[in-house]
TrEMBL record:
The keyword Lyase applies. The keyword Lyase applies. This is Aminodeoxychorismate lyase. It comes from Niallia taxi. Residues 30-58, 79-101 are annotated as: Disordered. Keywords: Lyase, Signal. Residues 34-58 have a biased composition (Low complexity). GO terms for molecular function: lyase activity. Residues 1-25 form the signal peptide. It comes from the Bacteria. Gene3D superfamilies: Endolytic murein transglycosylase.
């Protein structure tokens, strides 16, 4: 590049900065005047907008929400309901722990939902996340491929538990029909 081009560019930048600075400082003093004008116009507008709805009160909002099908409750009522629910859950867990078998084996049960577009890897990952299988989704997919049933994966809901063997899980989800 030639030095004359660079110096022309620099002079243009300097000129643009100078013009912007002048415009900023000249209009800076006009801003409070514009705010005062807006405040005056707002007062005139408020007087001419009689009959326009305002923000509803708390009672009106509760009525609106209740009529729309929502349950409206206070924070205290919600906290009480939550604590009551937690007590019921704790009692159920305590009752379940009393009835546990002595061998200590835990059986996990889950419903696997297979949707369109899922692959055997996706199914394996879902089973792994639900603690049904110990292998990874990829390893599960390899087991499915060994059986040659990967193309028989159909959308639906399948009930699976961890006491089932891998072969039983595969035959349950990948059904040749």
């Amino acid at each position: 590049m030639k030095p004359s081009i660079i110096s022309s560019f620099a002079a243009g930048l300097l000129l643009a900065a100078a013009v912007s600075s002048v415009a900023y400082f000249v209009t800076k003093e006009d801003a409070p005047k514009a705010a005062e004008t807006t405040a005056t116009n707002t007062t005139a507008t408020e007087e001419s907008t009689e009959g326009v709805e305002t923000t509803p009160t708390v009672e009106e909002m509760q009525d609106i929400l209740s009529s729309s099908g929502y349950v409206v409750q206070t924070k205290e009522a919600a906290e009480k309901a939550e604590s009551d629910w937690q007590k019921k859950v704790d009692a159920a867990e305590e009752k379940a722990s009393e009835g546990k078998e002595s061998n200590g084996d835990v059986v996990y049960r889950t419903a696997i939902y297979v949707s369109n577009g899922m692959t055997s890897i996706d199914v394996g990952n879902a089973l792994k996340d639900a603690d049904i299988i110990k292998m990874s989704g990829f390893e599960f997919s390899k087991e499915v491929e060994k059986k040659g049933v990967e193309k028989y994966l159909k959308p639906g809901s399948y009930k699976i538990d961890s006491s089932m063997s891998t072969n039983k899980i595969i035959s349950t989800i990948f059904q040749k029909q």
